[in-house]
Design a protein that fits this description.
alpha/beta; eight-stranded mixed sheet
Length: 318
């Protein structure tokens, strides 16, 4: 068996308003000197860390694509900034764009073959915004269960909630009205929501998702500040966020995918499909938000779709 190259490291990341050294942790699967564009993986959350996306490391084994995972600032193995909890002016999209720029420069992947971006959930939001700048070296873009705007995200979640039993809808509404999210009814409703729309597995959460839940449980600074206390409403610094006006500026061929029952509802994917000039959109039937974790068969299908998209030589039909 051929040994798979793995490299880990930390990139210094200077933040003007922070008077302490900060760094971004990264892990490379494969060989960056192979002459093939690496896939830079942007995780979700915000604040979930990279581990739940490690299935995509197989893009190196199966397609010869080096894969770069990293933990965004404020979570997992990168620098934590708990002192910035609740500071919506600090936790903004631009901070994460700056961090990604810093990582790309450190790795030196803008030149030569360039790089691909793969963003899942919040990572898809960040990836779309970053790609709209037409960064030098970007070859292809994958938006996995991303969201085009906070408004469309809320509309999609509303459509899913409308399909839930009425008593569960009432429990969710009461929790949001009171700002109290610890009731038995709320927890029962959220368990139903997670199993039906977030990750459709018998034993929730799947083991691959545990590190992300642990990261956000141990330090919720990023998630609660940017998203809010509930995954059903984006009321933090991402409120009113949108990438829709910027989508026509994306020139990289783009693959969009989501699940049939995804919390990233079809309504939040439509602008990607309508406004990105060269785009494909695939919806995986019977699946939820973390569709790559729902079964081995589905995981293999997704890896095949992503791998073939990133390695195809002809793009005229994209």
């Amino acid at each position: 068996m051929v040994e798979i190259p793995v490299q880990e490291g930390k990139v210094p990341f200077k933040i003007e308003s922070i008077n302490e050294p900060c760094f971004t942790y990264y892990k490379i699967i494969g060989d960056l000197s192979s002459g093939v564009p690496p896939v830079i993986v942007l995780h979700g959350g915000p604040g979930a860390g990279h581990e739940y996306l490690l299935a995509f490391a197989d893009l190196w084994r199966d397609y010869g694509l080096p894969v770069v995972f990293y933990d965004q600032i404020g979570c997992a193995s990168s620098t934590h900034l708990r002192q910035k909890a609740g500071d919506g002016s600090f936790w903004r999209e631009q901070l994460f764009q700056d961090e990604l720029d810093n990582l790309l420069d450190h790795l030196g992947v803008r030149e030569g073959p360039g790089f691909h971006l793969f963003g899942q959930s919040w990572g898809g939001m960040l990836g779309a915004a970053f790609a709209a700048r037409r960064p030098p070296g970007l070859r292809r873009l994958v938006l996995a269960s991303g969201l085009a705007s906070e408004e469309l995200a809320a509309r999609g979640v509303g459509l899913l909630r409308d399909q839930m039993p009425s008593d569960m809808q009432q429990a969710l509404n009461e929790a949001e009205e009171k700002g109290v999210y610890g009731s038995v009814g709320y927890k029962r409703a959220m368990d139903f929501y997670r199993r039906k729309y977030v990750c459709r597995v018998d034993a929730f959460p799947p083991v691959e998702l545990l590190p992300a839940l642990e990261h956000m449980g141990e330090d919720s600074t990023v998630y609660r500040t940017m998203y809010g206390p509930s995954s059903l409403r984006m009321i933090g610094s991402l409120k009113k966020w949108t990438v829709v006006p910027r989508l026509p500026d994306i020139t990289a061929p783009t693959l969009v995918y989501n699940g049939e029952f995804d919390t990233s509802h079809d309504v939040a994917q439509v602008p990607f499909f309508e406004l990105i000039p060269r785009v494909r959109w695939i919806t995986f039937s019977g699946s939820g938000h973390f569709c790559h974790l729902e079964s081995g068969e589905l995981r293999d299908r997704i890896l095949k779709v992503v791998g073939e998209f990133l390695t195809q030589k002809e793009i005229a039909d994209v």
